[in-house]
Write a structure and sequence with these properties.
Alpha-Beta Plaits; binds iron/sulfur cluster; about 110 residues; alpha+beta
């Protein structure tokens, strides 16, 4: 009898810095995985226990006007992306965030 081994994807959830969150709800409006909730008592966003985020999403972090959203599992996420891209013959591109005008050294 053949057995199928299903490898679970890493459960990815954002972390919200409450002191930076203005409660604008931009992140919730664009989240398609119902990971985020608005807490009326604190007037801030909170992260629900489950489910996890959609793979490769991070729209909330990109759209948050105050930089309140981050991801604590950066390493696991990058490794997960690399594996996915490797399967289809692509590589993860690196982005140089150094300020314009400064010499950019090639990454190794
Ligand atoms: S987009 Fe940012 S500031 Fe606005 S509610 Fe979400 S976490 Fe808070
Ligand atoms: S990364 Fe995507 S799925 Fe996860 S909370 Fe942000 S918008 Fe929702």
């Amino acid at each position: 009898m053949r057995q199928r081994i299903i490898q679970a994807e890493p459960l990815i959830r954002p972390v919200i810095f409450a002191e930076r969150c203005s409660g604008c709800k931009t992140c919730i409006k664009h989240c398609k995985s119902k990971v985020l909730a608005y807490d009326r008592a604190t007037r801030r966003i909170r992260v629900k226990e489950s489910p996890g985020c959609l793979p490769d999403c991070r729209i909330c972090a990109r759209l948050c006007p105050t930089g309140a959203v981050t991801f604590s599992d950066e390493e696991a996420f990058v490794s997960y992306l690399k594996k996915r891209l490797d399967k289809i013959g692509h590589e993860l591109a690196t982005v140089d965030n150094s300020p314009p005008g400064r010499e950019q050294k090639p990454r190794q």
